[in-house]
Amino acid sequence: MPPSDYVHGYGSRERERLGDQAETLADLLHEGTHYPDGSRVLEIGCGVGAQTRILARNSPEAHFVSIDLSPASVEAARRAMAQIGIRNVRFEVGDLFDLEYPDGSFDHLFVCFVLEHLDRPADALRGVRRLLARAGTLTVIEGDHASAIYHPRSDDAQFTIDCLVEAQARAGGDGRIGRRLFPLLCEAGYSDVSVRPKVVYADSSRPGWVSGFTRKTFIAMVEGARQRCIDLGLADATRFDRGIRDLERSAGPDGTFTYLFYKATAMRRD
Length: 270
Prior knowledge:
Helix content is 40%, strand content 23%. By secondary structure, the protein is an alpha/beta fold. The protein has a single domain, classed as Vaccinia Virus protein VP39 (Rossmann fold), CATH 3.40.50. Strands 1, 2, 3, 4, 5, 6, 7 and 8 form an eight-stranded mixed beta sheet that branches. It is globular and about 50 Å long.
C-alpha cells in the first residue's frame, strides 16, 4: 500500500487521532503483550509511533525495530520517542513486502491496524513469517468497522460508516478484516493461532470511553475519510456531514456505542 492510499490521510488531525486511540485503548488492546528482557521485536507499520510508545513502555528491556513505509511518519515517530525519553526503539523506513532482514532475526512480530489497508494481507503475513525465530510469536490487532452498534440509530450515520468501508475497499483494503484474522493466519502458515475479541462499550456513565473512543477515535476516523469519500463519488458533502452529526448523537447523554477489535496471537513452529 503506497502512502497515498492511506484513506485517513497524513495530516495533523490524523496524527492526533492515532495518539488518542492508542492511549484510550492501551489497557484493552495491550493486555498481556509484554516481551521478555533482551528479546528482539519487530513492529510492522509503526506509523507515527502511537502504538510504539505503549509497546516500549510496557517492555522497557526489549529491543524494538519499528518500521513504516512513510518516511515522514517514521521521522515523526522518531522525534516523538526522543521527546519522551524512549531509547529502546530503532526506527527504519521499510516495506513489509520487501524486508531485507535475515531469516529468524526477531523473537516477536507486532502488527497493529496495518492489514486493513493491504490488498494482500495473507501474502504479507506469509512473507514476514520467515523473520521469526523458531517458536517466535506474532501479535496482530485489527478492528471491524462494520461491528459498530450505536444508539440512536440513523440511516445517515450508517451511510457514512459504509462509505469509509467502501473507500478502504477501493484502495485495496478491508475495514472489516478483524473477523478474518483466524483464517488469514492459518492460511499464512502460522501455528497455535488464537483470536480474542476485545469489546469497546461507551455510554454517559463511562465518559472517558465516550470522549476517547466514540468521539476522538471512531467518529474522528470516519470524519477523516470525508474528502476521500467525496472524491470517490461515494457521498456528497451534505449527506456525509449529516451522517457525522447523527453519529455524534451516540456520544450524547442518551447515546451508546459498541465496537469490536480482534487480537490474534500465533507462533512459528517449523
